[in-house]
Design brief:
Elements: E1 8-12, E2 18-21, E3 46-50, H1 53-61
Antiparallel strand pairs: 1-2, 1-3
The protein binds zinc ion.
């Protein structure tokens, strides 16, 4: 199961707005997989994270592994 593309979650630290987006390789599409501003409150404290801890670990340990 390792190496599968994972969902991405964008989350606003100001108002707890969040959106899980389907994986799109390494492409960041603002408004779809990447949010510069929170659509709900306009805040800039956005974070983006992978869906699970284990998949983040795989990404960190094996950066050569491509998921697209
Ligand atoms: Zn917000």
């Amino acid at each position: 199961m390792w190496g599968k593309a994972r969902n991405l979650t964008s989350e606003c630290l100001d108002c707890s707005w969040r959106k899980t987006s389907p994986p799109a390789g390494d492409v960041l599409m603002q408004g779809l997989t990447y949010f510069k501003h929170c659509p709900a409150c306009g805040g800039e404290n956005m974070i983006r994270r992978e869906s699970t801890d284990i998949e983040q670990l795989v990404e960190r340990l094996m950066p050569w592994r491509r998921v697209d």
